[in-house]
Specification:
six-stranded mixed β-sheet, 2 helices, Immunoglobulin-like, 82 strands, 871 residues, mainly beta, five-stranded mixed β-sheet, 3% helix
């Protein structure tokens, strides 16, 4: 039976092992173990410094629920990250920050859970810091992150509640800064946990502005500085009268504190406000005042006096006076008293009168003054004075009653060696040859300059001196200087210095060469440094030797410069020379490289505003000079009135007629005549008058001359005179006592009224107030006038109708005319009325009579004729 069990056993095993032919079945597999998962009771926490929070870890998927704790990967944490116990109690470190708490399953180290921890301060103050000024109040608030911990105690620099030295703070956190600048610390301490505190730094500072007050002249500047104590951030913003940066009414101030005073006097507040705390503001009081000197610009005679007045507005005080920077002046520049009474030196020149405030020595006012080129009863320059008004107002001998052919006539003639184009000049009581003489000076085309006894009679004509400057230059007939050209222009005399200046053109090796001579008035000898060769270049152009120097020389009392103009060559040139050193000081070429612009003015001279020294002249043109104008833009200054800076000779302003293209096309020079300065009005205080070949007289506002526009003339007034289209005005008008006198080509003399106080367009009468009867031929005439102030006005001019252009030596005599200035229709005298007794020398173009001390000096083509009351 054992066996059987064995056979049976064997059979059973075989069945199991050899069941390969049984159906394909699979026995059940073992299920996978459950996943282990760790979760935490909180995934983030805010924990105050030093405080704890409990983390609980739940482990699923295993019966082993133990975990290991770490902070920022450090088992159990550390002092810097905070620590965590084996039971998950996290204790925050002493420093705030962010950390990660991790619980890791012991059963499976890959299973873990993390929580983010923010370690925060237990208390926080608002604001975190403060910049305060002494006495300022600041509310501090403490915010606690500790539950049930809103109550705090306050201290300043460790002193509970603070004190007067460090500042005080209430139980509600209201801090009052102490009176002295300094740095302090506000601390709030938790009443729940004394270890929980919060602090805020406080800077108590002072801000001041220096200077704390200032007295500043109008338009002057004052530097203000913001001064801090107890604060390192010293940035401020600036305001004036509460306006950031100020404005033109209260004055402006830069970010650097530089204040520029407004034009009006007043009291203003300059304030600096701290950018650290807008309540930190300090201010300074500014007293703005004006200091004006009147008159602001004046011209006076040598050795005369002028009272100046300093007017202070906005401040009380006195002034000190100086002349050209010299306190109280001196004998060279003139003297001035403490009350502003100026006494001029006996010398021509420009000076600056300055009044300086004693309240603020940096503040001053000034006035410009020119000592005129003036000697009583003298005629020192073309057309009598720098305005070129042509009036001698010191004539007491000749009257409208005695200037007639019975009482008045030719006294004598001085023969000369050439034509006299320039106006005779007259100097009374000159010490010459050991005696005192009244002297008349004339220059000729043979390069001669003569000094004649002006009081001589036909019985005793006396040439006091005569100098010749060299061989004159042969010239063409069309310029009328036949057969030669030498001294073509009117010289000028510096009266106080007793020096006469003349320009001669001399033929040197066949080339015309110009020289400026300065001669001793008593001897005719060249002074030191004279003569000087005249040359010029400007913007690449060189002055041509073909030029004519026809315009009269001018001496500017404001600059002490001699001005010399040239024309009849490719460009118009104006040169300036120092009257003492004879050094060239300036050059101006008026067409900017284009052709034309000739300066000739029929022998006239540029006008000078004596107080300022500004120059006024009129330019001409040459036939076909059109390239200078493009549209409404002027490239150069053909046919223009020009106002020039007296030192730089730069163009300050100009006017050119709207038909200047037509003028240029027809050779119709505007500058065939010369301009005259006329009395202005309250509305237009500075005015200018003149005209040229087209016959238009332009009245111009010198302060705004009008420029150029091809469709209109921006001038005060235009009056048409003359009888031909493009051959009218070749003269310098005369102004006297409310009248303008002008004598055009092929026309009679005409008088126009001048109303200085009239409205624009109504100052010059549109039609003559009176006209003469005698028609003058070629070029008309430039009149002169004599009067005793506002009485006995007589207009004088020379009729050169007998001039023969193609052979001047065959010309007939010139004719002198005299008219009653109150009505030029009333001719008082002419030199043909007494037969041959008063016949003058040969007629010539552009000649101008000179009247002085009872005598009339008439330049001609062959002699100087002197007329006066008959013996």
């Amino acid at each position: 039976m054992l066996y059987a069990r064995c056979g049976v056993l064997t059979l059973t095993l075989t069945f199991i092992a050899c069941g390969s032919n049984s159906p394909n079945t699979t026995s059940p597999s073992t299920p996978p173990p459950p996943a282990i998962k760790v979760t935490l009771n909180q995934t983030s926490a805010n924990v105050p410094v030093g405080w704890t929070t409990q983390f609980n870890a739940t482990v699923t998927g295993t019966t082993n629920t133990a975990v290991n704790w770490s902070v920022d990967g450090i088992a159990g944490g550390s002092s810097s990250t905070g620590t965590v116990s084996t039971k998950g109690l996290y204790t925050a470190p002493a420093q705030t920050g962010s950390h990660t708490v991790t619980a890791t399953s012991v059963a499976q180290t890959t299973s873990e859970a993390t929580a983010s921890v923010s370690v925060v301060s237990g208390l926080a103050l608002s604001p975190a810091s403060a910049d305060l000024i002494p006495g300022q109040v600041q509310q501090f608030s403490a915010t606690s992150s500790i539950p049930n911990n809103s109550a705090v105690t306050w201290s300043v620099d460790g002193v509970a509640g603070g004190n007067s030295t460090v500042g005080t703070i209430t139980s509600a956190g209201i801090y009052t800064a102490p009176s002295a600048p300094g740095s302090h610390t506000i601390t709030a301490t938790s009443t729940v946990d004394a270890s929980s505190t919060a602090s805020a730094p406080v800077a108590v500072f002072s801000l001041s502005v220096s200077p704390s007050s200032a007295t500043v002249a109008s338009a002057a500047t004052e530097q203000f500085t913001a001064n801090f104590q107890g604060l390192t951030n010293g940035a401020v913003t600036w305001s004036v009268n509460g306006v950031p940066g100020g404005n033109s009414t209260v004055g402006v101030i830069t970010s650097a504190g530089l204040y520029t005073a407004p034009p009006s006097p007043g009291t203003y507040s300059v304030a600096a406000t701290s950018t650290a705390d807008a309540s930190g503001t300090a201010s300074a009081s500014v007293n703005v005042f004006t200091l004006a000197v009147s008159p602001s610009a004046v011209a006076i005679d040598p050795s005369s006096t002028q009272q100046f007045t300093a007017t202070l507005q906005g401040v009380s005080g006195t002034v000190t006076w100086s002349v050209d920077g010299v306190a109280n002046g001196n004998s060279s520049v003139g003297t001035i008293t403490g009350t502003g009474l100026y006494t001029a030196p006996f010398a021509v020149g420009g000076h600056t009168i300055t009044a300086t405030s004693t309240v603020n020595p940096s503040a001053s006012g000034s006035a410009s003054l020119s000592v005129l080129n003036y000697i009583p009863n003298a005629v020192l320059t073309y057309h009598n004075d720098d305005t070129r008004d042509g009036a001698d107002l010191e004539e007491t001998t000749l009257t409208t009653a005695n200037v007639n052919s019975t009482q008045f006539g030719k006294l004598l003639a001085y023969p000369v060696d050439g034509q006299i184009y320039g106006q005779p000049l007259y100097f009374p009581q000159l010490s010459i040859n050991g005696t005192t003489q009244d002297v008349v000076f004339v220059a000729t085309e043979n390069n001669s300059l003569y000094a004649f006894d002006a009081d001589a009679t036909s019985a005793n004509p006396t040439t006091l001196w005569h100098v010749n400057f060299g061989t004159p230059v042969p010239t063409q007939l069309q310029y009328g200087t036949w057969p030669q050209v030498g001294i073509l222009s009117t010289p000028v005399i510096d009266g106080p210095a007793q020096v006469i200046y003349a320009v001669a053109v001399v033929e040197v090796n066949g080339t015309p060469t110009f020289y400026l001579h300065a001669l001793n008035l008593s001897t005719g000898a060249d002074i030191s440094g004279s003569p000087v060769l005249i040359t010029a270049s400007y913007s690449g152009d060189t002055m041509e030797n073909s030029c004519f120097q026809r315009m009269g020389l001018a001496l500017n009392p404001a600059t002490n410069l001699i001005y010399i103009a040239f024309g009849a060559c490719e460009h118009g040139w104006l040169l300036a020379y120092n009257k003492t050193s004879l050094a060239q000081q300036g050059v101006f070429e008026d067409t900017a490289g284009a052709a034309g612009g000739g300066l000739w003015a029929s022998g006239g001279a540029l006008a000078i505003d004596d107080p300022t020294g500004d120059l006024y002249l009129m330019s001409g043109t040459d036939f076909g000079d059109q390239e200078w104008i493009t549209g409404n833009s002027m490239v150069g200054y053909n046919d223009a009135f020009l106002r020039l800076d007296p030192n730089q000779l730069s163009v300050l302003d100009y006017f050119s007629p709207d038909d200047n293209f037509t003028l240029a096309s027809n050779d119709a020079d505007l500058g065939a005549g010369a301009n005259v300065l006329v009395p202005g009005s309250p509305t237009y205080p500075h005015e200018l008058l003149g005209g040229g070949k087209d016959g238009n007289i332009f009245v111009i506002n010198r302060d705004s001359m009008g420029g150029f526009n091809d469709s209109s003339n921006n001038v005060l007034q235009t009056v048409l005179t003359g009888v031909s289209q493009y051959d009218n005005i070749f003269d310098t008008p005369v102004y006297w006592n409310g009248s303008i006198y002008i004598h055009c080509n092929n026309d009679v003399i005409r008088a126009f009224s001048w109303n200085a106080n009239g409205n624009a367009g109504q100052q010059l009468s549109s039609t003559p107030t009176s006209v003469g009867a005698a028609v003058f031929g070629t070029h008309g005439a430039t009149p002169s006038l004599s009067a005793n102030g506002a009485t006995n006005g007589i207009v004088w001019d020379i009729d050169n109708s007998a001039y023969v252009n193609n052979d001047p030596s065959t010309s007939g005599p010139a004719v002198l005319h005299a008219y009653d200035a109150t009505n030029v229709a009333n001719e008082l005298y002419n030199s043909t009325q007494a037969g041959t007794r008063d016949t003058a020398g040969l007629a010539l173009k552009f000649t101008v009579p000179t009247i002085a001390n009872g005598r009339v000096f008439v330049p001609t083509g062959s002699e100087l004729d002197i007329y006066g009351l008959l013996p």
